[in-house]
Each structure stands twice: as C-alpha cells, then as structure tokens.
Design a protein that fits this description.
16% of the residues lie in helices and 46% in strands. It is an alpha+beta fold and 178 residues long. Strands 4-5-6-10-9-8-7 form a seven-stranded antiparallel beta sheet, sandwiched between helices. It has a four-stranded antiparallel beta sheet with strand order 1-2-3-11, with no helix packed on it. The N terminus is likely disordered. It has three helices and eleven strands. The protein is globular. It starts with a helix and ends with a strand. It has a single domain, classed as Protein Transport Mog1p, Chain A.
Amino acid sequence: MYYTRSRLYILLSFIAIFFVSDTNGQGKDVNDYNYKFTFSIPDGWESIDMKETTDKDAISYSFMKKDKKMTIMLLAFKLSSVKNIDDFIYNLEKDISLNIPTKSGEYSEQDFGKYDMKSANYKDNKFDEMIYYFRTKLPESPNNYVYMVRFITEMKDFNTDSETEIKNIISTFKPTAE
C-alpha cells in the first residue's frame, strides 16, 4: 500500500483516541490498542500531537524531549495483508513530505518471529536521525501493521547519551498484534 503526500497530510490532520498512562513517575507507557503497539517514554518527554486518518488506517504520534534536543515521530499503518518491509521503507524514504535525510551506512535487521525490524542512521548537514521500521508477519490475521519510529536530533545534540536514550526507548517498542 503506497501512501502519497496527500494521504500523509490527511494522516496529520485527524485526531484519534489513544492511551497514555504514568508508570509511578518512571515515564509513560503508550498503548495503542487499535494499531497494536506499545512502548515507553521516559520522564522528560511530552506528547506533542496525535492524529489519525478518517479511514482509521493510519495514525501519527509526535513526542518531544522537554529540553527540545530530540523528537520522536511514530507512524503506524493498518493493512489487510503482510507488507514487504523493503517496499514500506522505500516509500517512506522517498516521500518528500517526510523530508528524511540520506541514509548513512547499512540497515540493521532483527527478526522477532511475529514481527521484524530494520533500522538505519540518516544524516544531513543539520540532523542526525535513527529510524526504525517494523512490520508484523501474521498471514492468517485480518490485519497486519507497519510502523516507523523516527528519532530526530540536531547534529550538535547527537552524542553517546542521546544514542543510549534512543536504544533504551526503542527496546520498549513492541507490536502487540496476534
């Protein structure tokens, strides 16, 4: 399924319901039951925006670190079949409205059984980004999902501490589709 620029603009123009809960001052758990994923945001982050398409087949979340040194953009798409992860990545990397910098290096890959993930570092003269792509692999399920979790940091703010924080946050991301 290819998402055009207008489709992504629609994605960014409609609000849906989601669940965010405090975990004893330890941050927030984001549990989206409609798009079947969960992850944790540590203290020091705030939710900026969340929008869903009118067709209820795509949603976007935005979070910003309170010191404004990093943002997270999460896109989730609901599909009727298993999506080829390379096609999904290609479509997002080429979408001009996302303005993703050039990939730096090779993709890293992991297979978790019911879902898999590819990630890469993207850089230009201003931003250093880590982007993680996930897709569920449930051929018998009525719905499958693809996700992009994008960590955006200005070049001057990207360091080992920010890289560690990104790895800690992304380690909590789990597709929950069965």
